[in-house]
Here is the input.
Amino acid sequence: MNNGIKLSGLSQEETDNILPGNTVLLGYVGSISHGTQIQKTDPDSIDDIDIMGIAIAPENVYMGLKKFEQKEVKYKEWDSVVYEIKKFFSLLLKQNPNVLGLLWLQHQNYIYKSPIGQSIINNRSIFTSKEAYHSFSGYAHGQLHRMEHAACKGYM
Here is the structure.
């Protein structure tokens, strides 16, 4: 069970299959958060619904009995990735551009915020540093390289 989280247009069972239990923060990322999504009613629409979140793993993961770093699911139009909290913090400390964005979404782009998730957002400034410059410029360079060499699949 996911703290009562239910994704729009999906049943509770479908939502539970997409999200790991104990999700503490969940938000829309990608085209929705960037304001560039083309609605499904538009014949030119090719957008999926990208969501990202943070979850606290079950105790057996922290005891070393099981492994869980992230859960990625593509189901219908939903494209979801939820990171285990330690993995998420590790990516934040590396100034990973993809995960940093989850902490800086506009209010309406958060699907779910538990008290723990809200605390992470409230303290987001501790996860940013000048190292972000290198991470973001490296990411941008890589994306440009992929576009120039037609290495992308689908669309960009």
Notes: The mean pLDDT is 83.
